[in-house]
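This protein record is not my work; I was only asked to verify it. Would you go through it and say whether the fold makes sense for this chain? Here is the record exactly as it was handed to me.
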Amino acid sequence: MTDSEPSRRNLSPWFRGFVMWLIYLAIALAGSWPLCLSATSTISIGFEGEATVPLLNVWTLWWNADRLAAAYADYWNAPIFYPAEGAFAFSEAQPTMAMAAPIVWLTGSRVLAYNVYFWLVLSLNGWASQRLLRRLGHCDWVAFCGGVMCLMLPFVWWQSGVVQLMTLFGIVWTVQAMLDLFRIGTNNIESTAGEGNWRLAVLGGLRLGGAFCLTYLLCNYWGMFLMLVLVHSSLWLWTRR
């Protein structure tokens, strides 16, 4: 055993995960170069013919930040499609964009906040995929390469002007939560102790529900499509134990 191996094992899993996320963030910044050089004035429009959808998403981020500051008062009564009430329900609300709200409040730059959200989505795609591959038993190097491949998927960069379609990490987290839940479910069936495992099963179910809800909030399309897949795949996972 080398000196580096015991030191690596002494590192906290949270710290190792954070470092891995920073690596994927660096890859996202490099992949979108030179966007970071003009992060306050430029956004990615992908292969969109016009900037309509990306600019709408910038506005959506601002609206989420504005309503968060107002405790979500009149959230659905966005000043669009006047004079219709509840007009925000006609578009993709993306409430998860509120995580970039502090950047809007501190800098006043909606574009910078949007770009930070854009890079966060890309880095989480890679990081979540790497963790799923490790969960499936692949070695660190294979899992890392798989995460890079997910981050650099041609579809993701083709749709980089429609940021909600780039949010694959919610789907990946849902898949991982479902695999963990059915592993717990199998233990419940085979174990006679039962009580402690059922408690874990409840927590696993909550985790699965949370991951799916996050997927839907990130992108309504992915949430609806994923729901169709989850029903059949969960039945298959249950019956095969």
